[in-house]
Amino acid sequence: MIESLQENGYSFLTPEYLDPDNKEITLRENYSDVLILSHLQEALVRINPRLSASTIQQAIRDVQQINTHGDLIACNQHFQILLTQGIDTTFVENGEERTVKAWLVDKDNPSNNNWVVTHQLTIIENGQNKRPDVIIYLNGIPVIVFELKNATDSNATIDKAYQQLQTYHKAIPSLFYYNLLEVISDGLEAKVGTITADISRFMSWKTADGKTTAARTTSELQVMIEGLFNIPTLLDLCLNFIVFEKYTSEDSKTKTVKVGVIKKVAAYHQYYAVKKAVISTADASKEGGNKKGG
Fold this sequence. Notes:
Order of helices and strands: HEHHHEEEEEEEHHEEHHEEH
Radius of gyration: 21 Å
Helix content: 25-40%
Shape: globular
């Protein structure tokens, strides 16, 4: 899978470079660190060339302090806001305080971002020691987590991959403050979802090119890597096709009302339908268009 991602433009960072015990080469000071701070700083400088060093540091602190915004879901929702709306940083110019946006990602040029994949990263939090299978970093921020099971092991099911992620949410929540998507796979079957989705809401990505549905005999994981994990599509989906929605539910017996938030991501057919609808509407509404957006 890592080789396939490399073919799609991701850089492979071997785990030794993220091992705090390798003092001479490590990019992490502690096993509790989930950010690659040097990658984050380099990306912020590259994407925001007009910002001063102090405003860059303000933006980095905002990313580091994401855990101050509530529980896991609240922190995750706040990160989505920072990612899509930018970070407000302040500076003084001619005696007046001014605010300017710092962007964590280059929206217009996906290849100007730093896409890194690594595996078996050891994270220790609250005495819990965990090693997620594969993590994708975007500009030093861990945005995708994969849990993979062995297709040849009848006991290693995709359901168990899902349950493993639920364990990680509780044991190492800081990794998931920044999570955009989760992937579960047994090497053949593969599904993508969010941190709040139950397993029935994890969905396959069934097209590699956005035009045709892949044959059932094709590995779902390979289709997902080619279709969803090509970098422009992935960035577009993560920036424009994720929403957080409030919900209320009532227990039929106790009449207790529960209020919460769920995170939703578009399925592959919804994503491509919206893309086509936008083009159709733009064509219909331009001068000389038929005014029928559809």
